[in-house]
Amino acid sequence: MTLEVDTGIPYANACDVTTTQQDGSWVVSFAADPHGGPESLWFCLRLINRSPVPDASNVKLVLKNLRNMLGAGDPSKILPVARQEGGEWRRMERGQLEELLDGRRQATWLLAPPNPTTDVAVCYPYGRPDLDRLLDDTGGYWKADVIGVSQGGRPMLRLSNGCGEKGSQRPGLYLLARQHSGETPGSWVLDGVLRCIASMGDRAPLVWAVPLANPDGVEGGDYGKDNFPYDLNRAWGDPPMRHEVLVMRRDMAAWRERCRPFAGVDYHAPGLSESLGIYAFLPNPDQFKQEHERATRLADSIAKALTPRYAADPFGKVPTYHSRWETPSFLSYCCSQGFPGFCLETPYSLAGDLVLTCDQYREAGSLIGRCLAEEAFSGS
Description:
With 380 residues, the protein is α+β, with helices and mostly antiparallel strands. 24% of the residues lie in helices and 28% in strands.
């Protein structure tokens, strides 16, 4: 087998790539590229077998320098995904830890030989083709509009189930995902939320959603947390520090005029080997007492809907980690506008012992979507 690595595919991210042979088998070693930011996590690459006759030997994948990646301390809780050409994405086996003599740590996995290609990613990718599939599957329920462009000039799509009317008391939800562009579990959960809302027809709240908030980072294979020149989720101050945030803020202003704003929800993913399940980051009660109380009640309802299969315990948390930018996030911006905002964090691989698939992400999203709709109409 003659093995090559391609990092020119959609969502690609890998660097410091080496291919060697050990005992007749191929070893592909690589690192996750920070793409100009301080944090690395997302990776995605393609293995190509150029041999005319397929080789039966497995390929050993080696992810270098785990200590430099966000939350990657336990490879046994990291299950990347792989897809043979023409096939579907499937989970790989749990990673194994290798500690080198000088203390460096790396994760390894065994992969069936490419025939002729195999794509590998840290988690199920989600991009524009997946969004188009959602639109097709929901039979035209969602209207897709371009509300602006990214810093790189890519269209920013907003899905809506109506324009609303000025002064309307119909409850409203504003939803987004991929402010941190490598956090694909958030996209799959939001996909499930939107499918659930579509099944409600006219009985649903007014929902406006931006599923790919950072299209440049998504297409470019960025991880995107704390990326320079500014983390999208730390750019919600006055004035906004990213053009994408300016676009979403002005879109939210139009949404607020056309409904009774109930909540804003931002779909994220945590550190790479976190595995307790889905949990919520809530507003700081010292800054937003009323919004914290409302978000806590809503989070309690979502936790009940997700228990015992998907919810972490505890479910609702106030973020206390130190940020590189002590500037407003989507969560705090929503609260400043008089309605609760919160973030839902969904793991990359595991919820407890449950290995998460696309269908399970969507199922969790459906449970969340139904809960959001019910609570919005109850007015809690």
